[in-house]
Amino acid sequence: MTEQKRLVVCASHSPGMERDTEHVFGSEFRAGLADARAMVTEFDPDFTILFGGDHRRAFRHVVPTFAVAMSASILPEGGHDEGTLDIPVDVATEIAAHLLDAEFDISICRGVGLDHAFAQPLRDLTGDLNTYPVIPVPINCATGPLPSAARVLAFGEAVGQYLDTIDARVLVIGTGGLSHSPPSLELDAYDISDEERRRVIAEGAAAARKKIRPEWDKAFLSALAEWDGAELASLTDDARAQAGVGANEVRTWLAAGAAGGGKPLDAIVYQPVEEWITGMGLAVSR
User: Catalytic site residues?
Assistant: First the structure.
């Protein structure tokens, strides 16, 4: 029996889930996360590649389309203290060199401060920020113009081609989406204070709860289950219009799936959670 070398897990994230400390909402999604975490524990990866988006916090004035982080901290957020990621620099450097050879003009990031887009999936799926070494790979999902879905798929394939050359068990995570439209991202401002961000979010929260689009979410999950590249690209390129500005984050799912070999990803759970303003989904490789 061939040993599984890559496990792909794609999951929604939401600050609202962490604020829900009593676990009042999203019980189905939380149960799905527990199942996925058990899969990760059994898989026991040597390291993780984490494709995540930025909420205009790490990258405000210079916004890379694709990047590889060589060192990174996690911002204090959602009741969590600041943290530092354990990044295997040698492997990250090899991936960066491979991507440059593949004609992706990536950015190299050092000392970058990442938010819940990266922290939440690590805590939820692996138990802690540094249970396994991790290489953060930011993809621009927030500040237009955004990379096309076809380019994101090609980028993920290039990462997968590097993984083909090494003997390691790799957990590949894509994080973000599904349908949601955070007020702070609807406001097309690249440099606002944390105080202003909180005000905008508070004022727009009620409207954001009604912007989940389950039909779009289910169509996207169905396309993942078939790994229908054309349909995934079509849905992703039209994500903002059909499913809200936050749906642009499914670009990370495309990259993760492509890096995992372009194989079907099965939905473990889908639950629209109005209190978290997000259609919460989770899919894993077979």
Answer: 116, 180
286 — pLDDT class (breaks 50, 70, 90): confident
Reference 47, options 155, 169, 158; nearest CA is 169
pTM: 0.95
Q: How far apart are CA 64 and CA 119, in angstroms?
A: 20
**6-285 CATH fold:** Protocatechuate 4,5-dioxygenase; Chain B (3.40.830)
Residue 124 contacts residue 11 (beta carbons within 8 Å): yes
b or e along 224-253 (b: 16 or more beta carbons within 10 Å of the residue's beta carbon)? beebebeebbebbbebbebbbbbbbbbbbb
What is the distance between the alpha carbons of residues 136 and 87, in angstroms, rounded to a whole number?
8
Sign of CA dihedral 145, 150, 153, 157: negative
Task: With a cut of 60, say whether residue 1 has pLDDT above it.
Answer: no
Q: State the CB neighbour count (10 A cutoff) for residue 120.
A: 23
Instruction: Give domain limits for the chain.
Output: 6-285
